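Dear colleagues,

I hope this message finds you well. In preparation for our joint manuscript, I am sending the Nitroreductase family deazaflavin-dependent oxidoreductase (Paractinoplanes globisporus) sequence together with its predicted structure, so that both groups work from identical material. I would be grateful if you could confirm receipt.
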Amino acid sequence: MRGLRDAWLWLIKNTLNRGTVRLARAGRGPFALVRHVGRKTGRAYETPLLLARLGDDFVAELTYGPDVSWYRNVMAAGRCEVVVGGVTYAIDRIEVCPPEVGMRAFGHPAAFVLRLMRRRDFRLLRRAS
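The corresponding structure tokens are as follows:
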């Protein structure tokens, strides 16, 4: 099963992500970028995500779980940047976010879809002060 999941993530990374990175950089569409540094390579990466605002902070739903590279890189570094609407924000803390709070942050209709898909793995990305 792991091989199938890895193949799926490779496909997404090398097809869909390329287009969504361009949209997110331009501040268009619903996508945000997470800029992070590889924990093994030291290389800079940009990963497109859907983020929701929660006050001054952001909520991410971990669609593929906490074992994805971007999340592991951010946790190892303890920080990252997010680009939302063309504006860059420094993030210096990441915390587990209760599912109810995450759902509320995404609002309707996204929360409805997340509930249908039984998504419950959210993270709160705290802006650096």
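For the figure legend, we might mention the following. The chain has one domain: 2-127. The mean pLDDT is 89.

With kind regards,
E.M.
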